[in-house]
Amino acid sequence: NRHDEEIACKKLxxxxxxxxxxxxxxxxxxxxEGSNTYRIxxxxxxxxxxxxxLFYAAFSFLLQLCLTGYVILENITSAHAMSFxxxxxxxxxxxxxxxxxxxxxxxxxDAIKLYxxxxxxxxxxxxxxxxxxxxxxxxxxFVIMIQESFIEAVLNTAALLFIPEIDDQLPQLxxxxxxxxxxxxxxxxxxxxxxxxxxxxxxxxxxxxRKRKNKSIGVPFCDYYLTNIEEQAAYPEDGINFTPYRxxxxxxxxxxxxxxxxxxxxxxxxxxxxxxxxxxxxxxxxSSKPRIGYLRIEMMSPHNKPIEIRRKGVDDECxxxxxxxxxxxxxxxxxxxxxxxxxxxxxxxxPNARDFLRAxxxxxxxxxxxxxxxxxxxxxxxxxxxxxxxxxxxxxPDFDHYIxxxxxxxxxxxxxxxxxxxxxxxxxKLGLV
Length: 433
Description:
This protein has 433 residues and is α+β, with helices and mostly antiparallel strands. The chain is 48% helix and 15% strand. A hairpin with a 7-residue loop joins strand 5 (292-299) and strand 6 (307-310).
C-alpha cells in the first residue's frame, strides 16, 4: 500500500546515503592515500577475532613517541649554541615538514567517520598525526640549529622527516594488502548497516533521516542520454567509455576541434549551455536511437570560444532538423562518439554550478582541478546574484535556469526557433532514458 511504499522510499534514501558515505571513505583511504597503521588496524580488527594487528599499532605508537621524546631531550640537554649557518636548512625542513603534516591534521573529520565513535585507536591516531607532528615541527627546527657540523644537520633532518611517516609506511613494510583490508571492512559495515535499516520501524527511520540530515542528499545531478544510448557499464574496447571529455576549439579553419577524455574534471570540461538538433531522414524515421547533426557547446570559461560540430558529408536524404533543443546549467560530456553524425552523446550535470559542486563531492564522482573549482565557484556566485536580483524585481527570465530530467528547455533566444508543440520537449522526444 501507499504507506509501505513511503517507508520503503525512506529506507532507500538511508541506504543510498550509506553507500555514498562508504564510497567517499574508500576514495579517501585508497585513492587519496589517507590510510595509516592505526586506520588499517581498525579496519582489520573490526568484526574479526584476530586482534594480532593491534600489536602493529602499539609498536608504531611507541616508536614514534620514543623518537619524539629523544628529539625533545636533545633540545633540553644540549649545551651547544644555535648556529645560524644551519638556518637555511632549518627553515626549509620546517616548511617541508609542515607540508607533510598538514593533510594528516586536516583529515580528522574523515578519520572520525571511519572510527565511528571515540576509542583508543582514534585517540592514538589523532595524537600521533596532530600533537606529535606539531611537536616535531618546532622541536626539529631547534635541533637542526644546534648542530655543530653540516653532516649532522643533514642526518638529523632526514631523521626528523622520517618520524611522522612511520605509521604511514609500516603497513607496506609489513606486506599488508591495504586495499583488500579496507574493502572487506567497508563491505562488512555496509551489510551490517543494511540489516539494521531493514529492521527499522517508521519512527526509527524518520529519526535516522533527521539525524543524517545533509544538504547534499537529493542534490540534482542527472544523466541526459541525448542519443538514447542504453544504460550500461563502460567498455573501452568497444569505444564506450564514461569519463569527462575536454574540448579545445580549433585555432583556424583547418585543424578541427580537439575532443579527448580526461581522468578528472578540468576547466575545459565544464559546459554552460548545449544547443543541438537531430537529423531528419526516412532511413532513421523510426529509429530508437536518434542522431545529432548539429551541436553547439558554450563553455563555462569566458576565455573559450563556443564550439560548433556539424554533420559530415553530403546526403540529400538526411538533413538537420530546424528545431533546436537547449540544456543550460553546469554540465560535462561523459560519452562522445561520432561518424557522419553524433551517434553517442551522454551529458551529466546539474541545473546550476552550486549543485554541480555539491553533487561531485557527495556522490564521490570525479576529482576537480583548481581551475574547474574556481570556474564553478565563480558561476555559483554569479547565479546567487542573479537569484537575488530576480527576487527583487519579481520578473520571470526569458528561459528557465532549472532543468529537470523530464523537461528540457527549448529556447526561443537562439535563432528564434522553437518547438512547434510547446516550450518544453518531452524525454521520449529527445531520446532521454
